[in-house]
Design a protein that fits this description.
Rossmann fold, 5-stranded parallel beta sheet, globular, alpha/beta, single chain, 131 residues
Length: 131
């Protein structure tokens, strides 16, 4: 976390409306700021390199490059940066694949309290796989 106490979050989702929604929810939390957004996995890697966020909220299903592939690259670049994968349909198999890719948490994007809880857990250096 940066010295000023603000947590910088990169939000990655191919749907601009979902990005706006997630930004709105996350920024209601004191000290959390969405520092950048990306619309696919390839853009997520580029934005990560530019902004070096404290935590990444990463959609699974996206064009160009999916969330697992983007997470593998980002984890190689910066193993200490926590990634929370959000998806419409979270399965045990997807959670397992996420763990293997270096993702520290996964939750359904429809359960907004789990998204907030997941970010909080990652910032406490915990993992977050609610099911």
């Amino acid at each position: 976390m940066k010295g000023n106490g603000v947590v910088r979050i990169l939000v990655v989702d191919d749907n601009p409306a979902v990005r706006r929604y997630l930004r709105g929810v996350l920024e209601q939390h004191d000290g959390w700021q969405v520092c950048d957004e990306a619309g696919d996995g390839q853009e997520a890697v580029e934005r990560f390199r530019q902004t070096r966020p404290d935590v990444i909220l990463l959609d699974f299903q996206m064009p160009q490059m999916n969330g697992l592939d983007a997470a593998r690259i980002i984890t190689q670049l910066s193993p200490e940066t926590p990634i929370l994968m959000v998806t419409l349909y979270l399965t045990h198999q997807l959670s397992d694949e996420a763990r293997k890719a270096g993702i520290r948490g996964a939750c359904a994007k429809t359960d907004i309290s789990s998204v907030v809880n997941g970010v909080g857990a990652l910032l406490r250096e915990e993992t977050y796989f609610p099911h």
